[in-house]
Amino acid sequence: MNPLATVGRFFLAFLQQIGELTIFASRAVSHCVRPPFYFRHIGRQMLDIGYYSLPVVGLTALFTGMVLALQSYTGFARFSAEGAVATVVVLSVTRELGPVIAGLMVAGRIGASIAAEIGTMRVTEQIDALYTLSTNPMKYLVAPRIIAGVLTLPLLVVVADIIGVFGGYVVGVYKLEFNAAVYLKQTFDFLEFMDVFSGLVKAAVFGFIITLMGCYHGYRSDGGAQGVGRATTNAVVSASILILVFNYAITEIFFATR
Amino acid sequence: MADTPKIEIRGLKKRFGSKVVLDGLDLDVGNGESVVIIGGSGTGKSVLLKCILGLLDPEAGSIKVDGQEVIGLSTREREQVNRKFGMLFQSAALFDSLSVWENVAFGLISAQGKSKKDAKPIALEKLAQVGLPAQVGELQPSELSGGMRKRVGLARAIATQPEIIFFDEPTTGLDPIMSDVINDLIVDCVHRLGASALSITHDMASARKIAHRIAMLYQGKIIWQGPVDDIDKSGNAHVDQFIHGRAEGPIRMQIPV
Questions:
Q1: What is the pTM of this model?
Q2: If interface means Cβ-Cβ distance under 8 Å, which residues of chain B face chain A?
Q3: Contact A132 B85 (CB under 8 A)
Q4: Can you give the residue range of the structural domain that contains B29?
């Protein structure tokens, strides 16, 4: 075995994956913007992605905001800058942690379920059956999920932001004994529109990534139950990695235009 | 135009990697004719159906439906052609997010643009035609037995009144009596619609019952075809071995390595 050949094979397989994903994504997007739209499907997916993710996202956001207040207090107290805690909490949550935490949680919840559902439909020939009934599976299955993901994640992140900031407030006021009015004033004084807006842009991109990866891996799955399992894992892992990569990229873009 | 075959396949080639599956296959299906393709597992019967349906792209050859070349059509044109088709899948492939009657009505709603209200009576009528009472229409596909799923799949395939129906191993996984019931239903439905039918199977009892003409697929080609009554005197050693199910003969089971 030539070790270089192995490296080359991996590299070619990697490039092929990227190519296939790009073609899939462009086809999916083109179906997202052309009628007909399956509004009932979009509505049902939005309910699933948004409403039913609220408990998970709300709880993680709450504890993230709480621990953030505690940790930043530990740091800032060392150079007597405790007053910055409220500002740090609100900026971290809106710009960074709200979208990322919500994105990762939804990737686990929704990315997996999309991949499993579409993957099962693939291996039981239901996707072929859609074709024979003159229904394009990209339009019927993929487009509604992606549209719902892009629309719903920003809404979810608004909720996560509020709950996260509230978590910080609870710790700040009841444990660290800040004055409630001062804490709130410090929270909102330095908050700018761009802080929240950049977080919502991230959320929309994450929504696209999560639903796209779920659909893509489910759509390509083969080999029965094992194949569906693999598709589910791949969907969650690749979505999580891409979320963190794009998180940096988007931060970088907004940082430049600051 | 009367003698234009419904489906005309010429020199069809398809391979996966280095494995040649279809190697210059020729086949015609006439108007109102029922052709059954027999052949061992893994000989490319399903691949052939998927090529005709446009789920796979062949490397070479031509497939004409009503004289119209269907290879290389755009997605939109393809959807138009597929409206002539109905298909019963091996595992029935019912949509498990929809109830039984919504499954049957799916093509009526998506392809013919009927409203749900108009489609439901037609769906229930098709269910009745395959021997299922209206209550079954309200069930979920997961609540059905294998034979019932096949019936629902058949009702869905015939609901849009297709001109050509494909049957992918319609009796696989059913007991002999249920197989015969399904065969009877297939013959009855195809006859009532006046449709052409192309089936693939390795169940000889089923083939004898539903076929006007039988074609045997072996190593990517049709090696024998003829009226169903001639199958026992084909004079072809491969066909004889297959219809009698003998391990010994010219066909060697290919064990993939």
A1: 0.86
A2: 50, 53-55, 75, 79, 82-83, 85-87, 89-91, 93-96, 106-107, 110-111, 156, 160, 166
A3: yes
A4: 1-82+210-257
**Angle CA B170–B202–B234, to nearest 5:** 130
The count of structural domains within chain A is 1
Task: Tell me the residues of chain A between 139 and 158 that have a Cβ less than 8 Å away from chain B.
Answer: 140
Identify the CA nearest to B85 among candidates B101, B103, B70: B70
For residue A168, what pLDDT band results from cuts at 50, 70 and 90? very high
B38 in Cβ contact with B215 (< 8 Å): yes
pLDDT at residue B1 is higher than 50: no
Query: CB burial class (10 A; 0-12, 13-18, 19+) of residue B39?
Result: buried
Find where tokens 């439906």 sit: B65
Backbone angles phi, psi at A100, to 5 degrees: -70, -45
Which domain range does residue A116 map to?
36-255
pLDDT at B253: 63
- Which among B119, B22, B115 is positioned nearest to B63, based on CA atoms? B22
Within a domain: B245: yes
Contact B55, A122 (CB under 8 A): no
**Residue B21 placed within a domain:** yes
Q: What pLDDT digit, counting tens, does each position of A80-95 carry? A: 888 888 888 999 999 9
- Interface predicted TM-score (ipTM) of this complex, two decimals: 0.84
